[in-house]
Amino acid sequence: MGQLDSSVVLVALPAMARSFAVRAVDLSPAVTVYVLVQAVLLPVSNWIAERLGARRVFVFALVFFCIASVCCGLSHTFAQFISARVLQGAAAALMIPVARIILLQSTRKEDLISATAISTVPMLVAPTLGPAVGGLITTYASWPWIFFLNIPFGVLAVIAAQRYLPDVPGQPAKTFDGRGFALTAASIVGVLTGLNYMSEATVHWTPAVLLIAGGLVLGVFAVRHLQRHADPIVSLYSIRVRTYSITALSGGALVRMPMRAAAFVLPLLFQFELGYSAFQAGLMLLALNGGDLVLKVITTRTLRRHGFRTVLLASGAAMVVLTAACAWFSVSTPVWLMVVVLAACGMARSLLFTGMSTLSFADVPPAELGSASVLWNMMQQIVNALGVSVAAITLNFVASAFDQPAGYIGHYNCLAALLVTSAIGALALLQFRKLLPDAGAAVSGHRFQQR
Is residue 439 part of a domain? Predict the structure, then answer.
């Protein structure tokens, strides 16, 4: 459900903009606020799960998410919708990381690749079908129904959780690190809110710069506090693990940027420049996510045969190049060629993301898996918001440079956004080169032969 609501909203942005009487590019907060709230509340998810019990927290989050989805669908104003998205993000902040914590703590190291590949399949079904389903609903019904669609899935998820997840009772949790949480949350809010101000059609430079600068300063204080506190809200021990720091933070953050930006830009390009309906745009994105899903069946075998370093370098380079190639889609581009490029891009992403997700936790000690999972999820949400914000900033910058109307979406705007974020993603390859040839060999089973 968390993935579904990230993908269907992107296709429905033009219809929602008309409903709320705003420009489509000004709806980027509908995407960023969802991930912003998740990023802010993620640090407390591990603490709450330990105190109340993972299954209880997971079921509560599922119910809360469904209620928030109903509120989204019933919204009549942009302000109401953003408020409902805040509630959704709060529920997802508990729902998603608690599920990952349960998975990591119950899986042996040697089974981690297979478990990661298997667990990502259902998470890929939603974004694979989401754009097409969202486009179909938006075109032939109305956009609120894309949120009401969560209700039956939520009911089934609650039943499955109650039946199959062990009811492990909560334990007396460590003292809540209120100062660490406040500093971390304020830092994230400052940076992402500042970026959101910069992504609007009419840029508010003063508050944007002040918020970003303040957020970065608070971030420095947050890191210092977390390193010194006896029981921090999030342990930073995993940052010392080489494979984790490269795949979850530095290189992992950079390489995810182009794909997150593309998920925001491509629906706009298809509908505003190529004249597609929301349903047709969703079908085009089906090729992208479908390619990702199809290649999952050989991901484990590929990683075991070639090793993490080789696979991450090759798939990262292919994904960046293919995302940049999407920038040249136009009315004269054959549909079959666009489908091939999107599918190939999805296949490269499949190898890349599964490899990074597995290697991130390969060398993390069991006692640190909870905090490592929370930190990993925080970084994903920050990158999600950052990718959308950078793309929106580029769209508006090009519109201003060519004296186009505020909020204008055209071919050159989308081209620039995809190329800029692809260039950022290419920097990740420098980080992946720092991985040892036998990185994660204990997990992948890959045997590196030094020559």
Answer: yes
